[in-house]
Known about the structure:
This protein has about 900 residues and is of the alpha/beta class. The protein folds into 5 domains: about 5-75, no CATH class; about 80-235, CATH 2.40.50.140; about 240-515, no CATH class; about 515-540 and about 575-605; about 610-645 and about 655-890, 4-Layer Sandwich (Metallo-beta-lactamase, Chain A). It has 30 helices and 24 strands. Strands 15-14-13-12-11-10-23-24 form an 8-stranded mixed sheet, with no helix packed on it. Strand 18 (about 775-780) and strand 19 (about 780-785) form a beta hairpin.
Amino acid sequence: MNRRPLLGFTVCWVAGSAAGCLFSGYSLLAGISACLLLLVIWAVSGGISWRTAAVFVLALAAAALYWEWTEARNVSLLPAALGRPEAGLNETYLTAEGVIVSPVERDGDRVDFTLKLAQIGGEKLGQDDGESVIEQAREGSDAQGDIGHGDNVGTNPAGELIAVQIKLQAESEIALAAQWQRGDRVTVQGELGLPAIARNFGGFDYRAYLQTQQVHWLLKGEGTASVTAVAPVSWELSSILRWNDAARAALGAEMDRLFQEPHAGYMKGLVIGIQDDLDPETFKQFSQLGLTHILAISGMHVAVYVGVILFLLRRLRVTRETALTVTLLLVPVYVLLSGAGPSIVRAGIMSMIALLAARLGLLKDGLNILAASALMMLVWNPYMLLSVSFQLSFLVTAGLMIYTPLATPLFSRLPKWLGSSVTVTLIAQLVSFPLTVYYFNQFSLLSFIANLLLVPFITFLVLPLGTLALLLGRIWNTAAVTVAGAAELLNNWTFRAVEWVNGFTAGVLIWASPSLLWICVYYALLYGLLYVLKQRREARFAPQYMEDETRPLAELEQPGAGGVRDASAHPSQVGVQAGLRGSRYAAMLCAAALALLLYKGYYAEKLNGAGAISYLDVGQGDSILITTPQGAHILVDGGGTVSFGNKEEWRIRRSPFEVGAKTLLPLLKQRGIHRLDAVILTHGDQDHAGGLQAVLEGIPVSALLFNGTLADTEPYSKLMSTALAKGVRLYAVQQGMVLAPDKATKLYFLRPEPEEEQPLLPVVKEQNHESVVFRLEMSGRSFLFTGDMDEEAEEDIIQAAQQAGIREAGPVDMLKVAHHGSKTSTGAAWLEFWKPATAVISAGVNNLYGHPNAGVLERLEEAEAEVFRTDLHGEVQLRVEEDGIRVRHKLVGEGEE
């Protein structure tokens, strides 16, 4: 660190920022103190000078304070300005005036952009005379953008960012929305709302994500009539970005003209970083093999860009200094045209620093350049630290610089070009692995070979052809079309290869998100293993004697024997052999520790003999995950996004929200569930069955249990076809059947009742009555699952039990209330029969059906059952042990603390 003080300073700055992000209050002070103690110990041991240690301490403390200062300023000023609490502003209709400060993006019938607020007003915001807030601000303040009047005067929110979402009402509005651009002054009328929060443990928190973008509110408008836009009348600095957006749009349109789908969307992502039109299935295929970095502009693209410019300039007989200067000035142009994402900004800054150092003849160091880039970006925006793209970009680049020299000797026997490719690909895979499993919860064992073969193919063939076609498009159309056709041919080969490799589904491993400590230990053990192997390799092939060394005769002869001593007895060779033995043991120790770490990370779930039941929040639907004491996983229903009617084609979004793909499947993977031992589909309605399609496609499933009927819908038919294609065993359950996944767990099926002389799989339109109902016995505790059964089905179960001499089946520890708390079920007789201690209602927030019904809640209260609701509490988790049940839920419900 004494030789690279900038690198050490940046590492301490990152550590201070991370401490500020992860901790607060006394925890933050304790974390900073621990880091300071390590620096003092390092200085005392002589590892670094005291002056350097003091600088590092300053970086650590300054970064933590800077993060805290940024967090303190990153709050919404609207509640204070409008004199109303945050909850009181939610779902308020108002008018906002400001400037568009982001690209305007359209996806189907929705248009999104970010508004920098200048003024805001609305209806009934607490003013007695009905006067708008804007008018009051104009009367009560001379400064533009002051908001509030009289008692409502608060902090001025001018400059606050608001995410605007406009839902188009007619296809003719697409052309009008296309005219909106960054820099336009707009007035937007709509409903102010808070972004959604994470409603499941480990789920995606949209509000927290937007907060890192310094956005705290959504403003939702209906149709282009809710927006009035006026272009800027004079040139401003932001006009550069406006022109850049227009240039990117023009380049994208040219790609659309030259290439057919899905090639157009793919080439736009590959060449100019526009991923909006990328085919979702193509992205999914690339993602599974860890190839998505190809579709994002990164350091590879910048290196190719810089190399081509320098080559052309040198061919034009331009001097070295001029070539470096011109290239330096053109790099920001490419960064802007490529979308200026974190990875491209990092690569651009590094390239500019390297070009400037070369121009000035200064000694340049890759790690110092990387550190300077990271420091500049984090000082500009500390929240960059939380960006997945930022983390992967810097970590992989640093890993290549640090680990590649260690791994290179291991492949020295290969041809140089092949050894270099293998080393870089392997190190990139190993370094990116922890973040890949942390954020995406899966890793393909075939990712290495796919990257080794496809990355050079795409980089050196497809990318240049796509770029050439784009450059020729307006100059020589015939040549451009020909080049584009060649690129499409290569793309077809790529797509087929990716699809073929992805066919080996056994190579895709699902990982739970590891801890930060696990990630740090992984990198330390990886470094130790590669270092020891490098030392061992070098020692094995190092010369044992210098070429001019003369070996003493006394050492060649053994005293009194008259013979020649074996060469292995030479002290230097003995030392080499001892060193090799030591390095072998060290390598074995590091490899064993790394293998154990990976094993623990892969089998991360630890219930210590307890069972678990998670009532997931999937909106207006049901999905319940059961984990038995011995680790079997059973999923009951999968939720599902219900759509009403057929959408017009122009309204269909590229990647519409579907609860199975966007909520359920990520949650299962994030929790490290490698296989579902059983999926129980209670009935065929979309809000229970729809999400299972993504589950069957994304996770191995051993068996699918259903009610023995078919629903006459296309999604249900597709689900069953997928199950058959995946080799999932299908079982039609009936009353009296028992499933025993382990010794401590049994499922007793109470419905549907067996019927005689019926078709093998009858088609039933009304599925609720045919819901699968079962009682779960786990570790001596009892739980009842009811699907969407109605009161008639409840009466059938009670009558069947009474005929068998059972007057009361309860008490049960937990009842899943049927049909989301609808009035058509959960009758008084049902509650009296089971006597539930607690009940869970799965219902969507502000759902259109009014679930749960007030009468059902009253009956549950009369039955003295404690009620948990996913619309109020989010996910409800039960940890089941023989000595009791522990309940926790994601959100705080009404009246709770």
